[in-house]
Specification:
Layout lengths: L4 E6 L5 E8 L3 E5 L10 H7 L4 E6 L15 H15 L3 E5 L1 H10 L6 E5 L14 H9 L3 H12 L9 H13 L3 H7 L3 H10 L14 E6 L4 H13 L3 E6 L6 H5 L1 H20 L1
Parallel strand pairs: 3-4, 3-5, 5-6, 6-7, 7-8
Antiparallel strand pairs: 1-2, 2-4
């Protein structure tokens, strides 16, 4: 991979946002999902670095970036990403999961040359079930990280385990929290309640996203929770300049873990097609 550099960008409220940059070409900002750090997208950045200068954000509450703060909101995160776009001179944007929700809300007031989102956590008509959040908070307050993570995994259905019993989710949670990345995973869990509360707060009929005017690619996988792909299809109906692609073989963690090359190819081909079309 190309040389990786880091920098701190100050958001509008003064919050420091850590950014990892690599590659050459037009600037493309990557906004990670819940419980993910910038380094989790090394594979995606490597795949894209031949065509783009890739700037991967550590969202507030993660890594060396500042805390969420007492007035956390999706608008605050959108302002963080806007600061990175401005500082790096970028006009291309990719968001994954919660980062996709952030990217959509930024695009409501700041158009970009091309927007790509992978399974943004958009709740339409109550499609995102946050009823598990009080239990998650209780476990976290008591330091029961594995129980909290199992509650999150089962509640969000972000992993393709379907209706597996809770002990299966507990086993997966234990592996996630006691592996090489376990300490970082535990440290990020404190950011989850505020993020999930924002998803629930922003529940709507989806029509607000009809105001997004940026050329948009809506990506998803067939091995993921149906509420995510249902939201993608609804966004496709509502957004005036959006394409939609759902690949049956992919799951929610395709961008960061399982299929970064496939997602990178979709991003690159969409940007090449739509940006060149705009310049004609």
């Amino acid at each position: 991979m190309s040389t990786v550099s880091t920098c701190i960008v100050r958001s509008a409220d003064g919050t420091p946002i850590d950014v990892l940059s690599t590659g050459r070409g037009p600037g493309l900002v990557v906004v990670p999902d819940n419980n993910r750090r910038a380094h989790h997208y090394d594979g995606l950045a490597r795949e894209l670095s031949g065509d783009f200068t890739v700037h991967v954000v550590d969202r507030r509450g993660h890594g060396r970036s500042g805390p969420q703060g007492p007035h956390y909101s999706i608008e605050a995160e959108a302002a963080d990403v806007f600061a990175v776009l401005r500082e790096t001179g970028s006009d291309l944007l990719f968001g994954h999961g919660h980062g996709g929700l952030v990217a959509l809300h930024l695009a409501l007031w700041r158009p970009v040359d091309a927007l790509v989102v992978y399974e943004p956590t958009v709740s339409i008509g109550g499609s995102f079930d946050a009823s598990w959040l009080p239990e998650f908070r209780r476990h976290l307050a008591l330091g029961r990280h594995s129980a909290a993570m199992a509650t999150f995994l089962k509640g969000t259905r972000m992993v393709p385990l379907g209706d597996a019993p809770m002990f299966v989710y507990r086993g997966l949670a234990h592996l996630l929290l006691h592996g090489a990345d376990g300490e970082a995973a535990r440290s990020m869990m404190s950011a989850t309640p505020a993020e999930v509360a924002e998803i629930a707060r922003l529940d709507s009929d989806g029509r607000r996203y009809a105001s997004v005017r940026s050329p948009t690619l809506l990506l998803g996988g067939g091995r993921t929770a149906d509420y995510l792909t249902t939201a993608l299809r609804r966004l496709h109906q509502l957004m005036p300049d959006a394409d939609c692609r759902i690949r049956p073989e992919l799951d929610h963690n395709a961008p960061d873990l399982n299929a970064s090359a496939t997602v990178a190819a979709d991003i690159a081909s969409f940007v090449a097609r739509r940006v060149s079309h705009q310049s004609v």
